[in-house]
UniProtKB/TrEMBL annotation:
Residues 173-200 are annotated as: Disordered. Residues 6-70 form the General stress protein 17M-like domain. This is General stress protein 17M-like domain-containing protein. Residues 189-200 have a biased composition (Basic and acidic residues). It holds the Pfam family YflT. It comes from the Bacteria. The lineage of its organism: Bacteria, Pseudomonadati, Pseudomonadota, Alphaproteobacteria, Hyphomicrobiales.
C-alpha cells in the first residue's frame, strides 16, 4: 500500500477529489479528509462520527453505507489546528492521538498520523500547517499500481503544489508545524485560498 495525499485550499475541490477517488474504486474506508472548520463553514449534518471514533469505534467503522466518506464527517479539535470536520482512518488516528493514544512521530497528532502512514515528516508538517491555516487534507491508502491514478486525481482536483507552499511558509518565518501553538486566528483562516499561483 502507498499513501497519496493532497492539500486543498478549497473544501469543494477536496470533496470533489474524494468523490473521484471513490468512483475510481478506492474504498471510502481507505480515504480520509480533514478540513479546517474554524469559521463553521462546513455543514456536517450534525454527525457524531468523530466522537464515536474517540470512543473507540474508529471513523472508518462509523461511516459505512451508501453515503460514502463525506456522509460521515464529524467535528473534532486537533491541537495546534483547532476545530476541524473529518472522516476516515487518518482522522481516527489523529483523534486517538488527541485522546492519549501513542501515535508515531515526535509530534503526535496529525503529523504523527501522517508519518505513521508513510508520509515524509517534512511533508507532514506542511500538510498539518496547511490545515491549520484553513485548508483541507485528503489522504488515501492505495495499492502501488493504483497510486499513479490516485495521484493524478488529486492533482487534477486543484491540489496545492506542496513545494511552493512550503517555500511560502518558510519565507514568512515558518519552521514547522507546532501542535502546541495557538490555533490560527479566525480572521486569518482561509488566506491560503487566495493563492491561485499554488495550484498544480
Amino acid at each position: 500500500m502507498k499513501t497519496v495525499t493532497g492539500l486543498f485550499d478549497n473544501y469543494d475541490d477536496a470533496s470533489s477529489a474524494v468523490a473521484k477517488l471513490e468512483a475510481s474504486g478506492v474504498p471510502h474506508s481507505d480515504i480520509s479528509i480533514v478540513a479546517n472548520n474554524a469559521k463553521d463553514r462546513i455543514d456536517n449534518g450534525g454527525s457524531k462520527a468523530a466522537d464515536d471514533a474517540a470512543g473507540g469505534a474508529g471513523l472508518g467503522a462509523v461511516i459505512g453505507g451508501a453515503g460514502g466518506l463525506l456522509a460521515g464527517l464529524g467535528l473534532m479539535a486537533i491541537p495546534g489546528v483547532g476545530p476541524v470536520v473529518a472522516a476516515g482512518w487518518l482522522a481516527a488516528t489523529a483523534v486517538g492521538a488527541v485522546g492519549g493514544a501513542v501515535v508515531g512521530g515526535a509530534a503526535g497528532g496529525l503529523v504523527g498520523a501522517l508519518t505513521d502512514s508513510g508520509v515524509p515528516e517534512d511533508d507532514a508538517h506542511v500538510y498539518a500547517e496547511g490545515v491549520r491555516r484553513g485548508g483541507t487534507l485528503v489522504t488515501a491508502k492505495v495499492d502501488e499500481q493504483l497510486a499513479p491514478n490516485a495521484e493524478r486525481i488529486l492533482d487534477q482536483s486543484n491540489s496545492v503544489n506542496l513545494e511552493d507552499r512550503r517555500g511560502e511558509y518558510q519565507a514568512g518565518g515558518w519552521t514547522g508545524f507546532d501542535a502546541d501553538a495557538e490555533s490560527y486566528p479566525t480572521n486569518e483562516i482561509g488566506r491560503d485560498r487566495n493563492r491561485d499561483v499554488n495550484r498544480v
